[in-house]
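Entry for 3,4-dihydroxyphenylalanine complex. Fields follow.
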Amino acid sequence: MQNNIIDIEKQALESIEQAGNSEQLEQLSIKYLGRKGVLTGFLRNISALPEDQRPSAGKRANILKGKLEKVFKNAFSKLESVDGKDFTGIDVTLPGRPAQRGSLHPITQVANEICDIFLRLGFDIAESPEVETDYYNFEALNIPKYHPARDMQDTFYVSENIVLRTHTSPSQPRVMEETKPPVRIISPGKVFRCDSDVTHTPMFYQIEGLMVDKNISFGDLKGILTTFIHQFFDKQTSLRFRPSFFPFTEPSAEVDIRCVMCKGKGCRICSKTGWLEILGSGMVHPAVFENVGYDIEKYTGFAFGVGIERMAMLKYGIDDIRKFYENDIRFLRQF
Ligand code: DAH
């Protein structure tokens, strides 16, 4: 009997020692400690022994059981660490995963480009609120309440006297109230109109420009805007100044460029005219100067407003303004 238990121990330890992987070890554990295993069978047969041998045989068998359990446990963990299952360090031999890098939105890129051109021409950047009073958005710009000129812009009213600005032009009276001439600023930002189709989104971007000093003439306006357009598109781009109307400028002009798609032959983009309208401009109306307390005998100036999306669409040949705001990464990645 005693020999028997010594044999079991010897065999078990030897085969555990030789087990090469956790599967073999598992089999051995079942063989010795399982419900139908060698040691369990031995314990079950104790009742068949002569009565005086039973206690010591039982004791020895239980000691061996405990010992084998420990030996198995150690052997398992030794094998697992060899298998690498519990390996938690960093494998420095693997190729790295590159971090995702964002990029500037095409509208931001074009706005920066336009600002850079004007900064080089000596303009400063002035910021102005997106939620604006009726006064700065309209009245200071010579657009009285209930005047038909308000129909040009479909306005989001926050309350009777507060609006989401419909253009960046309110930056003009705001800057002039704060500064004496000479003034030379551009003011980029979001504007809002209740409008939505292939060429309009309810929120879009504009850049306003304003230059006021003694002796500023329409010739300065033409010079600055021609330089801007030649730098933004290219020197070959022809442009024309077409008479127009804005309540805050007199005279007013819209600027057209030769269609960048068909080079003037006439296509769908330019509605077969060969020209594309890109901005509004004019000489600052004396009523605007009076509203901000500028001496109209002493000072003259010009102003302009450019739609940034439109400039981006023409530069990159994009035919639907809504693409800028759908956040389709496949579209945005191209810029
Ligand atoms: N604010 C005008 C608009 O949004 C654009 C504009 C036209 C701005 C003429 C000007 C200007 O400064 O002189 O339609």
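NOTE: The chain has two domains: 2-86, 106-332.
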